[in-house]
Amino acid sequence: MKILEPVIGLEIHVQLKTKTKMFCGCINEEAASPNLNVCPICMGHPGTLPVPNETAVRSAILVGLALGCKPNASTKFDRKHYFYPDLPKGYQISQYDVPIAEHGFFDLVVPAGEREQVKIGLTRVHLEEDSAKSFHGSDGKTFVDFNRAGTPLVEIVTEPDFRTPREAKTFLQELRLIARTLKVSNADMEKGELRCDVNISLRELDENGTVVGSLLNPKTEIKNLNSFKAVERALEYEIQRQTKLWQTDSPPAVQTTRGWSDEKQMTEEQRTKEAAEDYRYFPEPDIPALELGDLIEELKHKIPELPAARRARFITEYSMNGEEARHIVDNGDLADFTENAFSELFAWMDSLPEWDDADEETLTKERRRLSHLACGWLISKLGGLLTEKNIGFREQKITAENFAEFIIMVAQGKLSTRNGLAVLSEMMETGADPEHILEDKSLNMVADENELSPVIEKILAAFPAEVTRYKNGEKQLLKFFLGQIMKETGGKAEPGVTKAVLEELLG
């Protein structure tokens, strides 16, 4: 049985969020009807002159810098020739030998992956225009909508440094987050704003993990991947398909292109893949070279904190664990909200006199406890309520300050989990202050022993058999009594005081 290793590379197109198209003044947005946002330039009429979109150029430089690539101070556009009904000019304005940026490395963290830290090489980042969109009817006719023609795209080509489908999917998810952080694209795969073709081949390894024979074998390109799940499943399928060919001594001998069928959950052969010479690249004569040195220097200082750096900071600054930081940073709005709320929380904790003389180990432990409490309410409780009510995070009305106040109340024992959920739900829908909700709904915790004792005595009197069993050694019944007391008080009984009084009355 041969030892085989997948070799995977990605070619990714990110649709840029600009007001106008790449080389003309047409609006760059989804149109209400076909062929509405078009002009002679994006329709490819003879004699028209393209003018590069400055915002798109800036966006592409930002993407290149964020991915660790070296921007080229001088760059140019090229014509890439091929014939297809959705390409009005018969060529695409793209970049060939001098892209916007190239030769970079990106450190990727892959949670629960075979390799948790992966260095991914970036071949190039370049700009180009999108094609139109074809619609194939059941009657055999094909219709073309030119609204998308000329939309600015940044193409990212990686080295074949991925070894598993999980690594490829994780990189795409990280790229989406980077694009959103840079505010250059929403990068929504389902809407076609982030599109990916994957290239995969296998190679044989000996028992020591050394490559046997050719370093790289003819690759298979897989198209029509419109979700992260599709990328992962297509690669898993292709690994199985190619493994069977290798085990029968008939590995792929030529470079081919296959499409992914979501319906069949399999790849299907389309055609052999063109080589670069088939596109007959030559410099675009209507667009002079772009000198970008000053712009690159300007944009180097405008790169915001990227997701990986923000996760690392949340772990150190806010005492989160890796999974909490990843979940929160994956949503930019949630991350901003969390940052503001945690600043308030830790300022409150630092102001408490009981920690003035505490040692570093105790302080670290308490900060972690507070952080874990807040993350639990953010991710599980608030996240659950948003899902249940089908509300987006931006639609909920809780302010970061009010959320911090809410967590402080929970930490101080003023709110039980049950009543806390009621308060949080009210906050989410109305934006009210948690203290006011607590008073209005009379949800304050009862911590007075004199007030709790009659309630506890009533519960014990109602369950004499369970009291006897407890006194005979079934100490686990303590949880049963606590549950009954909480039920009787509507969740208002303060757990610590209640437990102490209960144990005293039980002897």
Q: What's the N-to-C terminus distance?
A: 69 Å
Instruction: Output the structural class.
Output: alpha+beta
Q: Beta-strand percentage?
A: 15-25%
Mean pLDDT over all positions: 91
Commentary on this structure:
This protein is α+β, with helices and mostly antiparallel strands. It folds into three domains: 3-279, no CATH class; 307-440, no CATH class; 449-506, Arc Repressor Mutant, subunit A (Orthogonal Bundle), CATH 1.10.10. The protein has helices at 54-66, 165-182, 228-247, 293-300, 307-317, 322-329, 332-351, 360-389, 400-411, 417-430, 434-440, 449-462, 464-471, 477-489, 495-506, and strands at residues 3-15, 70-71, 74-75, 78-81, 91-94, 101-109, 117-129, 133-136, 142-145, 152-158, 194-205, 211-212, 220-225, 256-261, 266-272, 282-283, 290-291. The strands form four sheets. Strands 1, 2, 6, 7, 10, 11, 12, 13, 14 and 15 form a ten-stranded mixed sheet that branches. It has a three-stranded antiparallel sheet with strand order 5-4-16, with no helix packed on it. Helix 3 (228-247) links the parallel strand 13 (220-225) and strand 14 (256-261).
